[in-house]
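Hi, here's the filled form for the chain we discussed.

Project: internal
Contact: R.S.
Residues: 358
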Amino acid sequence: MIIGLIASPFVEVPPKRYGGTELFIANLAVELTNLGHQVVVYANGESNLPVEVRSLYPQSLWPLTGEFSETLKDINHTAWAIRDAIEDCDVIHVNNVHGLPPSRFCRIPFVYTVHHDHDQALSEFYSYYPDVHFVTISNFQQRLEEMPSLRTIHHGIDLSLYQFREKKQQYLSFLGRIAPFKGPHLAIRAARKCGIPLKIAGEVQPLFQPYFDAEVKPHLDGKFIEYVGEADLEAKNELLGNSLALLFPIEWDEPFGLVMIEAMACGTPVLALPGGAVSEVVCDGVSGYVCTSLDEMANYAANIQTLVRPNAVREYAELHFSAERMAAEYVYLYNQICETGSLQMLEGTAGSEGPTAA
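And the returned structure, exactly as it came back:
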């Protein structure tokens, strides 16, 4: 089978730093190839993958500024990629809304992975594309949508890229966009409550610079509360692998939360506030804890070394969140839609996750 995976033109695949969707596409592309399929990734020219990459735009463009020209660039890239993919591919797998309108003019199957939180306007837009096979990345996300062809496939990562560390250092970590809904200000409060130092990593986008300046920067002393900047893969391994726990004090309905499974891959438990898919990713007492308050989070952090074994955390990630498992579920979907050739023959499959590779 030949699969066309379409990324945005803005961030290279895989991403050097920020880029959850681009990391997903990179992991899926590699594992689909390992399963014997041919993959073409449509991304910008800075992408570096062991599969064929086709590009319209040579360079990344991040962070975005919100200019209309950026939207035009995304539309142009996506339309070009789909026109190219229909010549060679058996399935076209898109990952943003601009990939849907061209599906009306193509006879080959389209798969769309929904990477964002629920948005009523987008859900209404999706309803005009009943022949597209939608994939949500959590059951929580799926329950908010009503597309006729809809199933959940949890994310997976290449676990070999993450270094397991059994011995931890005496600090907590926060990794993610420095934005209010991600909760770095709450991570600071939890760290102070339990008396354990905190290292913060993540991108400060221009939109959230005032938040960083007001809610995070005043607490930074380079010792107890430290900001280490953006983190590439090497820095993630260092930060997460040596950390007692990853703090994930979100204040929104997280569609999935890739950083949680990255921490688990390093043998580092996750202490999270509930929201969205958190309870689908974190298993209490095995890979961390879903906490009801910052006080509870601080209490778990203070005692985490006696509550959770790093080996068990890594094993949980291997069992549930490998890229191999994720790719096998997508192949199951691709095969179904290619064999049936019609949405009607897939009725009753919504919510099915297919076989697993675990």
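Let me know if anything looks off before we file it.
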